[in-house]
Specification:
This protein has 8 helices and 7 strands. By secondary structure, the chain is of the alpha/beta class. About 50% of the residues are buried.
Length: about 250
Amino acid sequence: MLFDLTGKVAVVTGSSRGIGRAIVERLAEHGAKVVVSSRKAGPCEEVAAGINALHGAGTAIVVPANISAKEDLKRLVETAEQELGPIDILVCNAASNPYYGPLAGITDDQFRKILDNNIVANHWLIGFAAPSMRARKDGSIIIVSSIGGLKGNAIIGAYNISKAADFSLARNLAVEFGPDNVRVNCIAPGLIKTDFAKALWDNPDNLAASNARTPLGRIGVPDEIAGAAVFLASRAGAYMTGQAIVIDGGATIS
């Protein structure tokens, strides 16, 4: 019963594939009604259809949204509330990383896109969803950050900067929202086998090097992140806020 989400409404961005898809599927499995959202409706509809086939019609709805567009995020929250009811769980999972290489080579537009989509968009979306949570004195907000926010890297430095900022965003909002019983936490995955991170694992040499640095000797898969979201969304995580759960096979300890 600690992990029961029956009657809860969850919105998960970037949930048509990868980590977001695993999270939205597991939240539904534990009883939540879920909003599947990413830029393109087609892939979202496929995910929602699978969820509804398993858990009943109306368990999942689709609301496409581009995280770079503030008006899209406002519409995402409004539509979710109109169709399913007040949002209890918000998972800010969608992110961007258009550049791989040293910071000296990044263009201003690339840097701004990373910061805008990975930090500012989370701020916008939380700003739209949190007031209702605070008024009801209940809610869980989860930001999918990265262990990159804990480390330096010569290839994905701008992305790492944005993910470090997500940790700070969660901590500060946890302080602001805590008196209203709204919790804000991060999940910090290590290298996970997703299309988003393909540039980091698709090369056999890179993959072998990553595995050698990781105590469990392998990279993760999306479903190994989803359980942490269920924990943070449920009564099991009711006394956790402002924290980051690292799920990386031990990479940051070795």
